Each structure stands twice: as C-alpha cells, then as structure tokens.
Amino acid sequence: MLDKINALLAEINDLSVNSHEELESFRLKFLSKKGLISDLFEDFKNVPPSDKKEIGQKLNLLKQLAAEKYNFLKLQLQPSDDKSLVNDLTRPSVPYNTGSRHPISIMRNEIISIFERIGFTVSEGPEIEDDDHVFTKLNFAPEHPARDMQDTFYISRLSAEDSSPDDILLRTHTSSVQVRVMQNQKPPIRTISPGRVFRNEAISARAHCIFHQVEGLYIDENVSFADLKQTLMFFAREMYGKKTEIRLRPSYFPFTGPSAEMDVSCTICGGKGCNVCKHTGWLEVLGCGMVHPAVLEACNIDSRKYTGFAFGMGIERPAMLKYQVNDLRLYFENDVRFLDQFRSAF
Ligand code: PHE
Question: Does the pTM exceed 0.70?
Fold first, then answer.
C-alpha cells in the first residue's frame, strides 16, 4: 500500500493540465467519492495495526497534496480562461464602482428636472451677496427684522444701525439670484435658482445655519395666481405622487402679494394624520406668491405690463422625508457610511 501511495504522490506532483476537462478528470480520479484516495481510505481498514501510523500519515499527506494541487491547477487555468473571455466583445463589461451622489444633490436634481419639463431654466448666482440683491430690491423695508444680525451673516457692515446697499453678507435665500435674472433679462422669464443659503441659527437635528433652496420665478404678460397654483400642483404630484393634494394658506413675504405657504398632503400617512405631520395630515413645503410690483419696478420691469409669480422651498426637509433621515446634521458631516447608502438615477 505504501508503494501505491508513493506512486500516486509522484503522479500528482508531476501532473499538469491544459483544460477544465483535464482538471475535472483529475478531480474525479483522485478526489471524488469513488476516486483513488477514497479507495485507499477504504483499504486502510485492513492495514495491520503496526503499520497504521506510518501509512495513515502518508495517506493524509496524499489527500492534502491532491486537494492543494487541484486548487493550484484551477487557479492556473483562470488567466488563460480570462484571456478567451476578454476577446468576447459581446460580454457585458465589469461595472465601475462609481460612488454615490449626496442626497441633497439627488433631491435638487429631481426638483430641477420636474421644472425643466415645463420650460424653466436654471440660474445661479453668488453666495456672497450684497444687501441690495438679498433685501433692498426685494422690497424689504430698511428696518425689516430679517435683516437683523440674528438671521443674517454679515461679512462687512458699514454701520450697525442702518443697513446700506453696500453691506456684504451671505445670502439668506436664493431670491437674490432672481433679482439678478430680472436685472439682466427681458420677460418672459421662467427660471429656477437652486443653491446654498445661510442663516444664523443654532445647529440642531432640525435646523442648520447652512441649507439649500430651490426658488422659482415666472414673469410674463397676464400671469395669474391660477398659473401659480397649477404649476405648484404639477410639481407636488410629480414630486410626491399622483394622489398628492395641495393646500395654500395665506402668508406674508415682503416681495410677494398675495403670498401663501403651500402644504402637501402628508407623504407618510396620505393625510390621515401621523407623527411626521403632527396629526394634521399636511406638510408645509414652500412659500410662494405673486411678485410685488415694487420688486418688478426695482428691477426695471414694467409692472403695468408684466406680472409674475415666485416660490421658494428648502431641499433638506423633503430629503429628510424621502430618505427618512431624522437628523439634519448628517447631511453636512460627509460620513461615507451615510453617503454610500444613496443611489439614484438623478
Ligand atoms: N425667499 C423665501 C424664503 O427664503 C421663499 C419664497 C420665495 C417665498 C418666493 C415666496 C416667494 O423663505
């Protein structure tokens, strides 16, 4: 029996294979249940006790070697195998690991794509702005509380008492971009301005001093509140689903009149009432209204000929609802374990 084992050891040592078929016959011959090694283990029962130790060790060695050789030959076959596959141009390619988009970007792109479908263009402007574009041209009275240091990060302020158009600040909303568009383009204007905005608020799970907005502006002859409502209804149903209802509540903004806040029927409970909508059935999503004639005039647009509507929404809150993120701060920490979870077509 020892000779037999030694002969097989030598055979396995010298063996080489050129194809998967040869490898498989090697496996069948040596390693399968009906293979030579199994047979030898069967014969081992008849070995006299005095030889058991020596033959047993040899037999185990044979088994181990055969298994190792099999794995080695299998690996050896792999590269040549790959080569033949590389030549097969009909094979799908190996997908790249492309990373994922930030949830705020996904949400922003989704909002943009909805408005692009109904003819809105995208406009951008500076984050560091002046008082004139953020407040004055938008009909904020000089003493309006929103200009107060509480809300606005000033970079340079000429006087602490009264604001001057030359004050430099971080924009508190992207309405400033719309002022720039109105100054530089003739109606009809149909544009949305996505971007980052800054307000001096304490950072918590539900508030941050940096957040993102998409604001919209439509100016033409005979634009009415009905156009505003219809546009927002289209947006709400594209964004939150076909069954979504909207509700407009009277509100106030210095740059619009009449002004409203828009609620959508709760995306979680469908309007029945739940924790997320605080049992009201409604979620507040944006502010809107008809552009104030004083704003049009300040931007050199004839307010007797043209009317328009505007709206503005935050991106963080809908993204929290959509992805069930319960802490706003996660959006700004850039932890890859958080970011890796977001995959999207947008
Ligand atoms: N600019 C407002 C805000 O930041 C939103 C808004 C835009 C409201 C346009 C009405 C019209 O809250």
Answer: yes
